[in-house]
Amino acid sequence: MAAATEQLLLPQEQPRRRPPVWGLTVAALLLVLLLAATGPLRPRLFRAPPPAERVALTLLSGAKEKGAVCVDGTPPGYHLQRGSGDGADRWLVHLEGGGWCSTVKECSDSRLSTKGSSNFMKPIRFMGNGILGGDQLQNPDFYNWNKVYVRYCDGASFSGDAEAQAQDGTTLYFRGLRIYEAVIDELMEKGLTNATQALFTGCSAGALSMMLHCDDFRARFPQEVSVKCFADAGFFLDEKDISGKRSLWSLYGRVIHLQNVRKVLPKDCLANKEPTECFFPAELIKSIRTPMFILNPSYDSWQENIRNCNSTQVEVLDGLRNKMVNDLKVVEDKEDWGMFIDSCFTHCQSLSGVSWHSPTSPRLENKTIAEAVGDWHSGRSQGAKEIDCKYQCNPTCNSLPPPRDVTAFDHVEIY
After folding, report:
1. For a Cys staple, 361 with which of 147, 297, 332, 368, CB 3.0–4.6 Å?
2. Of 118, 204, 298, 361, which one is the catalytic site residue?
3. Other CB atoms within 10 A of residue 103 CB
4. Domain extent at residue 167
């Protein structure tokens, strides 16, 4: 706050000296303070972003003919906001997250929400100051790019290709791979093919999907086009949780079997390991050739609940952090990769203005996430690999709000 106060007290021009006015009333003083806090005198960094227009849902054309449909057979959709200025030929494509459905019942139930049907999808606003935001101060590197938010309605990280029968006899469609391919094809026709720069991103289950398709996305462009990938909160771990179970291993195994995810798994991994192991990011990143930035809390609130833990459970969580740090050693040898692994207890930090780039954002080496990602993407910084110390050691994490589900936007707008 001190720096902000100094900005307030340092106008562009020094005013002429005038005799002191002793007749200001308390009400007048309050008015001055109010204007300083909310009016034009307020530092620009603290200003509210301009109102964002709703971005319509575009349903994939010819979805049924392509077999690229949501779980309930409805066409999938995406939201496209056109870029401007020097961002008119730059594209950011983001894959939505939202967990996985691993049983017939779970997938059947998903038909009653956006996770399995486009019938419930509505226009959204690319609000706030996250990577989808349109305010240059709070999203300096990507504010005016073409931005695409691809909705998630298949339950297997845009990677399955199968069908099943629900209990009521209707067909459940697991066509995530076809959805990914058809949506990217349609976006290429809408201008993505002419991109001079492209950033492929995802959050949570969408980040895992982005990892699975990163090299395929890169292969769709000429070699001279700058194409990079950015994974937010997708580095899920194959470790025993606090309960002592390998819960994610079991979940992923069911997803792979039910939805036939094997097609997108790295062939070099499948040659030596089980498909379930090849679905984990620790294995995926060994095969990915495209430059990637990994953003992840070392204590992910989706995978673990650190609140009210006893000392033994905290040791388990520290073990998970150590596992992540060890798995990420592969990234150290990839010169054009980057990472920002903070010790905050949270999930999906790029879609929130508070965590992306604000006065209270988490920082590593005194950089916000937006600054670290922007420096890596633009090549402004060579040292773009930062791993935080253990939980509660980083005071910039304390200003984050309690974790919330930002991987599914059924009834809220994107912040």
Report:
1. 368
2. 204
3. 13
4. 54-387
